[in-house]
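Check these lines:
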Amino acid sequence: MANNKDFKVKNGIKPTAYHEGVGTVVSGTVGYYLAGASYDSKSFSVSSQETSPKGVFFKSDGTKMYVTGQTSDYTYQYSLSTAWDVSTASYDSVSLANPATSVTDIFFKPDGTELYFAESTNQTNIYRYTLSTAWDLSTATSTNNNTSSFTQLANNQMIFFRSDGIKLYLGENKNATTDLYEYDLSTAWDITTSSVSYSGNTLETTAQDNELTGLYFKPDGTEFYLVGYQNDAVYKYDLSTAWDISSGTYSNVSVSLVSQETQAQAVTFGDSGNKMYVVGFTNDTVYQYSTAQTTNTLDLSTGSVFDLTPTSDVQVTLSNPADSGTVSQATMLLTGGAANTYDVANATYDSKSFDFSDYEPTFLYDGFFKPDGTKFFIIGTGTDKVQAFNLSTAWDISTVSAASEEFSPTQAGAEPISLSFKSDGTKMYVSSYGGLTVYQYSLSTAWDVSTATYDSKSFSYSSQTNASYHFELSSDGTKLYVNTFGSSSPGPGFIYQYALSTAWDISTASYSSVSLDLDASPAPALAAQCFAFTFSDDGTKLFNMAESSGDAQVFQYDLTSAWDISTATYAGDAYSYDITDGNQNDPTVFRVGDGGAKMYYGGTGAQTVYQFTIATAATITYDTAVEWPGGTAPTSPSYGETDVITFTTSDGGTTYQAVQAIDGAK
């Protein structure tokens, strides 16, 4: 690490350099991050006013919303009691008759004193209204229109002005082709024929969607966004020359809207780009999305070494360098954090495993991690014991060593098959294959199974099934889940849910009359071959490990109500693995851990547990002032890996020269 003293290179080759200690990383947000767009579960229906909404626009402070459409041929005004929160909208009982029967979009001057309409029937018409009271539609009067300056257009669908009013952008879709056109205004905001001229700049965007209907520009003119209903998505384009659409290229960034709207007609942004709004024909509803990206700023006035482990996509910037003529340097230790956990579909094998055959030589049936990942417990029917192991590196199964702590749950007979613990390690639960019963034990020393004693408490689930491999408990100890397997009755592939009236007291369990059929359509039949299952830490995801003909497969189910399997819906085949490669046979051990960053499975074939990463690391982007060798920033580090990046500036932060000093340190 650099020292914390300033020094000068006295031979004149280099100017003054600042070298300090560990610096401060300041977090913030930046808007217009389409790649990270997520639905806010907030919306507002305009169907009481308009059933074919075509355009949506917000007042600059987010307290007013305007929607126009083609069923009523009116534009409607709404108030938002909480700025930018569309769910707080209410109709103002204020409307304005549209100037034509096929208005396709609206746009307000930034001060709210002028309103512009685009329409498609007469192809080239643009209309302007003046509002004597800003943002109040009831005070709008027609000022002028233009019917002759837009001869390039047919079937105009969108309208957008540059913030200074000297650029106008229109767009059409015709004959499965979508084109944008750029116009110059000699007098700002004046759309009369004498003011408007075609700039000659155009851009075809058909490759993304040939039914594009909405347009929005980022305020600095370096990006624009299009929405369409052929593919029901919003698309981002980059402009190498701000506001020049002929310099536009598709960024390969888009966000699907199909879960909310399948005939999207308009898109707009608000709250400094932190929010995006879409409206369409299918549901006549305005939907709200978050589009804010986290920023991490390295404050060079506080130090020169920065440690950063982002848990979401971030943009890295630098601030407060020394004045021009003085070298400022910074070193960033960038570790790949888990931006997307429980990403089982993209599981990657860590090339880490542990062979437990010296401890359980016959049938390894279950394993359980202490919540901090420093202990692992196994149970099997060869030794009929629960055995404990320490991990010298938390969650790294390859660092296992025997803890010399074990316990024989004799109540489970010769077939103890599954185990679980209370979250604080003071209770242990073991089920028996033949007895179809869960038994409860107390540990006088938390997580030390050698101190276990039977509580004389148990629960039988034989009324629901006659064959089960696995059980789970909810994180608060109020719910129990049991699977069915093999020739069980009523059949394999069910999970049953039970309620504990006293948390963690298994004797108070009762059947909740709730079950999940794992292979119910659209899940495949293989899902019924459930050897083991597990939940995400928050109970909103369930993963089922099944096996058939040497293939292990994980199936995912999403729960709209945490820990309530009656709300589970099949989410897809999450992961597949040829278990014969590891001679694994029946995959009876299946766990996720490290906050959803790791997955583990093993079984009765090789008595080995294998480790996978199921976390997607955050994507790192950099401020435009940062320059890289070759012009391309390095890829972000993988989860758990650390890159070392150095930054240098001598022009007061106008530009930074960046170099990746170390790639992927562990």
Residues 1-19, 579-583 have pLDDT under 50 and may be disordered. The chain has three domains: 17-28+294-341+618-665, 32-291, 344-614. The chain is about 0% helix and 50% strand. The two ends are 18 Å apart (CA to CA).
